[in-house]
Amino acid sequence: MEEPMGRRFAVGYALASKKQASFIQISLINIAREKSIDLIKIDFEKPLIEQGPFNLVIHKIYGAQWRQQLAEYSAKNPNVLIIDSPDAIERLHNRISMLQVVMELSVIECDAVSFGIPKQIAVYDAIEVLDMNLEGRGLKFPVIAKPLVADGSAKSHKMSLVYNRDGLSKLKPPVVLQEFVNHGGVIFKVYVVGDYVKCVKRKSLPDVNEENLGSLKGSLSFSQVSNLNCVERSGDSYYKMMDLDDGKTEIPPMKLLVDIASGLRRAMGLHLFNFDVIRDDRIGNRYLVIDINYFPGYAKMPSYEHVLTDFFWDVLNRTNKKEIDLDLDLDLDSDTSGCQNEGSMLISSNADVDDGSANRILVVDEKENPIQV
User: Which residues contact 139 (CB under 8 A, 6 or more apart)?
Assistant: First the structure.
C-alpha cells in the first residue's frame, strides 16, 4: 500500500537506554522515515500526557507510575495505539503463568509432531526446598532453577543448573524448578511481530550425561556453565561439535511454530514477543516451549528494520483501534524458509533495578546473558 502524500505518523518509544541503543538503530530510523513514520523518544523526565502527539506508543517500561501515565494518556487520546497493554505483559512476569498459557492452546498436532512445556514446580520458601522430595513432585536431577519473577531485573536472570540436593540448599525462593531436558545444545527462538513469525536457531546449554551426575557438585550458575569440564564437553569444544552451520541440526516444522505463535498471540493479547523452543532428545519429534519474552532483542532478528517498519505501517493504517484488537484473531504469516543458522550465543534481557520501586517508572536496562535455556 502506498502511503498518502504528505501524511506522516509519529511513533513514540519508551525504552531503557540499552534497549534503545540496540533497537533504535539508524537503519530502522531511516527505513521507517521512508514509510512516513517518525520514531520519537519519550522523555521520562516529563509526564507522558504532555508529550506527543503520537499515533502509536511502543514501550518496555515497568512500574505503577508508568502504567498510570499510559492509562491517562490513553484516556485523553483514545485513538492512539498503545502496544502492548501493561495488563497483558504482566502475565509474562511470572514464570508459572507464563507457560500455563501454552497448555491452554488449541493447536492441532500433526505428522506425529507434538509440543508442550517442561515439568516445573514453584517453591516459595527455603524450608520447602530443604524438605522437598523432588522425585515425588515429578522431577529428577538435574533441574534448572529460575527466579519465579521474570521482570527483566538482574535478579530475575540469576539462573542455575542444579545437579543434586546440595545444589537445592543454595537456592533463594521463590524459585521455579524446571526439568532439564537434553536438547542437543540448540535452542530455537521464534520471534513474533504482529502477523510475522521468524525462527532462528542458536546455541544453548550442553547436554548432561546422567552417568556423570555423581561427579558433578551442587549447582552451576549459567555464567559458569561454559566452563564445564571435559566430562561434560568432549574434545575441543562442545559448540564446535554442535556447529549450527553443518546442516545436521533439524529445524522444527514451521507450521507448528506458526500455529503456536498464532495461539499465543490470541491468548495473551500481545503483538511483540518471542518464545524459546527446544527439541526433546528423548522424543525427537516433541518440542517444548521453555520461555516467553515480551519485546525481545529484535535487532538479532534478520531484517528486523523492515519487519518492524511494516508492522508499524500496518497498524497505523487500520481505520480504528478495534481493528487492531480483532487482528489478534487472525492467523499469522511466517518466513517459511525455516530457521536461520546463527552462531551467536543467546541474548536475554538483564538489568539492575530497585525491587522497592513500585511507585516509580522502572527503566530496566538490558544486558547480554551468554547462555540461556
Answer: 119, 120, 121, 177, 179
Q: Is 210 left (phi over 0), alpha (psi -120 to 50) or beta?
A: alpha
Cα gap 285→145, rounded to integer Å: 26
Grid look-up 500455563 returns 100
DSSP conformation class of 182: -
Determine the distance from the C-alpha atom of residue 309 to the mean position of all C-alpha atoms in its chain, rounded to a whole number.
20
Q: For strand 286-294 and strand 120-123, is the pairing parallel, antiparallel, or unpaired? A: unpaired
Our CA dihedral for 22, 24, 25, 31, rounded to 10 degrees, sits at 140
In the 8-state DSSP scheme, what is residue 149? Answer: B
Confidence of residue 320 (pLDDT cuts 50, 70, 90): low
CB-CB contact of 372 with 348 (8 Å): yes
- Indicate the residue type of 359: N
pTM, entire model = 0.83
With 60 as the cut, is the pLDDT of residue 359 above it?
A: no
Helix (H, G, I), strand (E, B) or coil at 13: strand
- CA 288 → CA 26, 209, 229, 341, distances in Å? 36, 20, 27, 20
pLDDT digits (tens, 9 = 90+) for 15-38: 999 999 999 999 999 999 999 999
CB burial of 203-242 (b: ≥16 within 10 Å; e: otherwise) equals bbbbbbeeeeeeebeebbebeebbebeeebbeeeebbeeb
